[in-house]
Design goal:
With 170 residues, the chain is mainly alpha-helical. 78% of the residues lie in helices and 0% in strands. The chain has two domains: 62 residues; 105 residues, no CATH class. It has five helices and no strands. The longest helix has 41 residues. It is flat and about 65 Å long. The mean pLDDT is 82. Keywords: Membrane, Transmembrane, Transmembrane helix.
Length: 170
């Protein structure tokens, strides 16, 4: 089996494994919606085991170049323009993630029990400034964490691809 066939077979196996993981998650969500408890041990074991196998297969199949949010392959080089382009992609992804999750929190504040959600604030700001400060703090924290994770994973992936290229060339 040549490298291209191995890659296609591995990708197919990963897609199948992803479907199994989604099905196990669906069973767990259904179980929780029905009984307000998650007691299906088999589904939990399948979900955790499939995640482990998924990570192992990704490692065995080899590194993949990091991709932007739109699916465009980012450059993996160590030169300044490549790093700058990757950092810009991480910045955009972190910004969009922070906006989306802060928007969900805003929806929770608007639609949910506002008093219960804001009573846990570490500062005693009542009225509109309290939730606004909460959302601003959440946005900054989400942005920072998302950027750090995106950058760490993207740079690791980029270096792994470069190592794989060096191994194949040498």
């Amino acid at each position: 089996m040549d490298e291209r066939q191995r890659l296609k077979a591995g990708t197919s196996a990963l897609v199948t494994l992803g479907v199994v993981m989604v099905a196990a998650l669906g069973v767990l969500v259904w179980d929780y919606a029905r009984t307000k408890e998650v007691t299906n041990t088999a589904a939990i074991v399948v979900l955790v085991g499939a995640a482990g196998v998924f990570a192992l297969m990704q490692r065995v199949l080899g590194a993949e170049a990091p991709r932007s949010l739109m699916g465009i392959e980012l450059p993996t080089g160590a030169d300044a323009p490549s790093r700058r382009r990757r950092r810009r992609a991480y910045l955009v992804e972190a910004l969009l993630s922070a906006v989306a999750l802060t928007g969900l929190s805003l929806a929770g504040l608007v639609l949910g029990d506002r008093q219960a959600l804001t009573s846990a604030l570490p500062f005693a700001v009542q009225g509109t400034p309290g939730p606004a400060a909460l959302l601003a703090t959440e946005f900054v924290a989400l942005f920072a964490v998302s950027y750090a994770i995106d950058r760490a994973l993207g740079e690791w992936s980029s270096k792994a691809v470069e190592r794989q290229y060096a191994r194949l060339d040498g």
